[in-house]
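Blinded run. Sample ID left blank on purpose so nobody reads anything into the name before looking at the predicted structure. Input follows.
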Amino acid sequence: MSVSARPGVTGGEAARPAPRPDDTRVALLFILPAAAGFAIFMFWPALRGLYLSLTKFNLLQPAEFIGFDNYTRMFSDPIFWNAIWVTLLYVVLNIGIQTALALVVAVMMQRLTQSTWLRGLVLTPYLVSNVVAAMIFLWILDYQLGIGQQMLSALGLERIPFLDSQTWAIPTIAIINVWRHVGYTALLIFAGLQTIPQSVYDAAKVDGAGEVTIFFKITLPLLRPIMALVLIMTVVGSFQVFDTVAIATQGGPVNATRVLQFYIYDMAFGRFQFGYASALSVALLVILMTVTFVQYRLTRAGSTDLA
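Blinded prediction complete.
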């Protein structure tokens, strides 16, 4: 028995799928809480800080608009330029050591063992807050009573004023933060290693490639997008170092560890110069945006070599 088509409806129109429902309102409903939080706690304070950077403000009196005087002062402030240099030195030491160690740990976890317990053990230092880590190392490295100094003496070596020396202070703070963050960075890299197909390694071994050749010719190139993301995250975080400095050295000795974030804090809450502190914050924002853009372009973070 044949079924006749409805009058006025062609075969193509009858086969056309029903239109999908519009989920725009539902999507906006889910985005709204995050967007509201971003606007209240990020976007508005940023605009407020940008305005305050053009004023003289100390909480006791209304903000007085002074134009670009704070920026003029900033560019002629030797402590500001010293803070830039100290921050850059810390970033280079921290990121260089941390990335190298994290890459080694991640590759070892992938090639030797993928034990869940080992991953948890590697991540353990990251569960310790920056304040606690700084206090622990402040005690360990104390020049008179620190267990680290006792160990140096037992080995017949001279004691080293790790946190009291202009030479050793920043490297020591960098090592403290490397100890805390290297496990987390290693797990990020380890997650990236899981995206590389095992067939690529198998083909390289068939061709006679050794472990070193595989690492430099296959692992690193294919890991580039993940490494770019990790570097952007860690570099931005390193430029904002504060807790360790505030607990361990408070910017000393003689501004040797007065990083830019600590200088901003000191100006705002130590000297109540909120206008100038806001100008310093804007400068830090510009630096971070520039560094992030340059990293993104140089590492080609938006592309991958995986087919």
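Unblinding after everyone has recorded impressions. The beta strands are 55-56, 64-65.
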